[in-house]
Write a structure and sequence with these properties.
Blueprint lengths: L1 H19 L22 H25 L4 H28 L11
Helix pairs in contact: 1-3, 2-3
Length: 110
């Protein structure tokens, strides 16, 4: 789900870079590192990593939206990215709550 959204966002941003005549940076190589010990990657751990990554993307998109005061077209793109990321995070929270992966909130008691 996240990879599909990243690819969509990449295509939109590349199209805008071409529209404004900004040269694209070189693409990184298609090397995928693999882990030798897969025991360290349990579902809870991967969920937390993905959840933190989505929250970081929301911060970047909110900052980009805030800084695009002149160009309405670019601001609309980052607004769309921001709302999409918020929707993904909301679904991640629901899934994490269902699985019991969210950190429990300490209860208040006298």
């Amino acid at each position: 789900m996240g990879l599909k959204e990243l690819n969509n966002q990449k295509k939109v941003l590349e199209k805008e870079l071409e529209y404004f005549g900004i040269s694209l940076p070189r693409r990184p190589g298609k090397v995928t590192p693999t882990l030798t010990n897969m025991e360290v990657l349990d579902d809870d751990y991967m969920y937390r990593i993905l959840n933190n990554a989505f929250q970081g993307a929301v911060i970047l998109h909110a900052q980009s939206f805030k800084e695009c005061v002149i160009n309405n077209r670019i601001r609309a793109i980052f607004k769309d990215f921001l709302l999409t990321e918020i929707d993904i995070i909301e679904r991640m929270f629901k899934y994490g709550k269902l699985k019991g992966w969210l950190n429990p909130v300490p209860t208040y008691g006298p």
